[in-house]
Specification:
Helix content: over 70%
Strand content: under 5%
Shape: extended
Order of helices and strands: HHHHHHH
Distance between the termini: 74 Å
Number of domains: 2
Number of strands: 0
Largest sheet: none
Oligomer: single chain
């Protein structure tokens, strides 16, 4: 017979109560932590929108009272967006993050590779590739094909093909960029 078999009913009740209290405290601490983290992110986002966008781009001579009001409005808007995302039953945070990373990969992944490995890559090819990769990613997701293949794959492939095709039509002509490319290629090639 183990310790539980020997223990009295009141002792088991006290153990269960103590375990429950400890678990509730751990859960409470986690909830408080999450709330503080959310408040911090909300305030940082609001501050960035207010000070970096509103005050610098829209209204440079805004008064302090106006900035505070805009900041509070931003907090409400950001909170509403967060609430909509949380209450959306079809989307999970992981799904939203995966979609965002897919967007980054489909739009900018080929750009980085072509910029590193092709001296012909110009801004026209880069712009066309970014637009193509992003459009393919969004259409792939909205049509529902992401059930069969992660949307970054077709976006990445179409971006690569677009950059390659535009590079064959319009090559890099900027002498400074070509000189920098050759300089870096020489350093990497010789191992200096």
């Amino acid at each position: 017979m183990g310790a539980i078999g020997i223990a009295s009913a009141s002792h088991l009740h006290k153990m269960a109560y103590t375990c429950g209290a400890v678990m509730n405290k751990q859960i409470s601490f986690k909830v408080v932590y999450i709330q503080l983290k959310m408040r911090t992110h909300n305030l940082v986002s609001s501050s960035a929108l207010t000070e970096d966008f509103y005050q610098k781009a829209l209204k440079k001579d805004a008064s302090e009272k106006e900035i505070i009001l805009v900041g509070r409005i931003c907090v409400i808007i950001i909170s509403a967006i967060a609430l909509v995302l949380v209450l959306s039953p079809n989307d999970t945070i992981l799904g939203i993050v995966a979609y965002a990373w897919g967007g980054f990969g489909a739009a900018f992944g080929p750009l980085v590779l072509f910029a590193l490995f092709s001296r012909r890559t110009g801004w026209q090819a880069v712009l066309a590739g970014i637009v193509t990769g992003t459009v393919v990613l969004v259409v792939w997701k909205q049509v529902g094909l992401s059930k069969h293949m992660y949307e970054i794959v077709p976006g990445f492939i179409c971006n690569c093909l677009t950059i390659f095709l535009v590079n064959t039509i319009v090559a890099q002509k900027d002498k400074k960029v070509l000189e920098q490319y050759e300089e870096v290629a020489k350093i990497i090639g010789t191992g200096e």
